[in-house]
Amino acid sequence: MDDSHIKPSLCTNSSGERPTGDRHWIASYGSIPVEIDADRYPSINALIEAAMQRFAAKPAFRAFGQTLTYADIDRLSTAFAAYLQKVAGVRQGDRVAVMLPNLPAFPIAFIAIAKIGGVQVNVNPLYTARELEHQLNDAGVETIVVFDGSTRTLAEAIGSTKINTVITAGAGDGSGAGIAGPAADATLHNAITFRQALAQGAQLEADPVDVDGSDLLFLQYTGGTTGLSKGAVLTHRNLVANIEQFKAFMPDAIRPGEEVVVTAIPLYHIFALTVNFLTYFSVGAENWLVANPRDVDSLIDVLKAARPTIFVGVNTLYACLAAHPRLAEVDWSRLRLSAGGGAAVIDVVSQRWKSVTGSFIREGYGLSETSPVVSFNPQFIEAFTGTIGLPVPSTDVKLLDDENREAAIGEPGEICVKGPQVMRGYWQQPEANARAFTADGYFRTGDVGVFDAQGFLRIVDRKKDMVLVSGFNVYPNEVEAVATALPGVAECACVGVPDERTGEALKLFVVTAPGVELTPDALIAHCRASMAAYKVPKIIRFVDALPKSTVGKILRRELRGVD
């Protein structure tokens, strides 16, 4: 890393070791505050209400040629809140699933759920029935807001859940636009449309609910080592804190009433949820929602119309856009921040992006469990660093080796985090919580990092076997469990391998039962029927045996370099 653009640190001792409990990165902060006020707003509701009042006449969201102002969002979310409370019977603390792509209905639904003290369970609209059923049952969900195009999946799973209220949403719902899209599944007989719910709610008035920072806001599901996802319990205070932390690092990209954001990464992902939506909503930004970023030509049309000041993406999205010949058609003169996260940003991708836009990609690091931002490359950085930046204010990070001793500067250790943005724990998972936190309350991320003398962090490995595909966590145990369910698969092992397009891809090594012949296509088709597309192995290798320890544990690490 060329660190000539980084201020020198003053916090190392003569041996180069980091003194225990000493946040040595603070010497590199410059004008950044060491601490933030995690209670600046008593709740996310208070933050949202302040923005809707201050910026009432300004555009809040644009999508499909339609615009909703902050006043529109206030009015519509108030109506939907009344429907949820008075008709659907949602009470404070109840979990409400939201299974939507980036549509106007998403922010309306979220603000409504928060207003009545509900807990939003974010669901990937591309999930299969198996994945959806687990998440709905684990969270104890009885009400769901679901994209019309995902209702077939819900119809397959609903009989095995406690869902009693289904609200279906189309592309234009909430914006007043009539936009053609997939029809809702006809077998969901008691479903009501989002438009109908808004109309009914407009005639009602919700009872006020007292919400404070300790109340739950999200169950943000993340992969589980057992193959089943776990819900990270995030409170109002967790999110308020992380918003304040991000603002402290990037004041020049937080100009009230001036920012224009294009949101092409999914709002159900914690990165977009906290940064694109809540942080920028709080400062009156104009947010252009992109429901299908895979349609790159349409995304570029949005970028041309929006002329964004802020763009947030994952490496795969940046790589795709940087390789597109039409990217140069966009007027990038207002772009002040290109933020990257979710997966490692590749140097060459940042170079290609900067060659067209004039802006390098400023990388950060976080997890669902940390709301998500743990570290970021601060405003004074003037070039791509190849690091995940400095820990944000009010955050302590220590690196622990295999003996749980704190690693010296330049030595690797598991990144362990303590701060007001760290989750309360996993939903109803006491054993997982015991494993996830150190005795003194640090969250174990499972990622291995190295601190340099200036306090910049670099990811060097993972302790866990998790694979990052296009910024999404994939746990090999889940893939292996699904693959093994196919008759003829005796055993298998899944690992991540480098991939130019998605960062990492899944490679599955398979041992078949005696006398059975399977094809890669059959295995991939089987996996695709039970898992979201990003979890499906890209490469299948049939082998005679898998490497195992003396106690019979499959050694995935020995497969990573096998062709």
Q: What is the end-to-end distance? A: 31 Å
Average of the residue pLDDT scores:
92
| Strands side by side in the biggest sheet | 2-1-11-10-12-13-14-15-16
Cα-based radius of gyration, to the nearest Å: 23 Å
Number of helices: 14
CATH topology of the largest domain: Rossmann fold
**Share of residues in strands:** 15-25%
Spans where pLDDT lies below 50 across 5 or more residues: 1-20
Gross geometry: globular
Strand element count: 26
Q: Output the structural class.
A: alpha/beta
Tell me about this structure.
26% of the residues lie in helices and 23% in strands. It has a 9-stranded mixed β-sheet, with helices on both faces. An 8-stranded mixed β-sheet has the order 7-6-5-3-4-8-9-19, sandwiched between helices. The chain has a 4-stranded antiparallel β-sheet with strand order 17-18-20-21, with no helix packed on it. The longest helix is centred in the first third of the chain and has 17 residues. The chain folds into 3 domains: 248 residues, ANL, N-terminal domain (Rossmann fold, 3-Layer(aba) Sandwich), CATH 3.40.50; 145 residues, Rossmann fold (3-Layer(aba) Sandwich), CATH 3.40.50.980; 93 residues, ANL, C-terminal domain (GMP Synthetase, Chain A, domain 3), CATH 3.30.300.30. The two termini are 31 Å apart. The N terminus is likely disordered. The protein has 563 residues and is α/β, with parallel strands linked by helices. It has 14 helices and 26 strands. The chain is globular, with a radius of gyration of 23 Å.
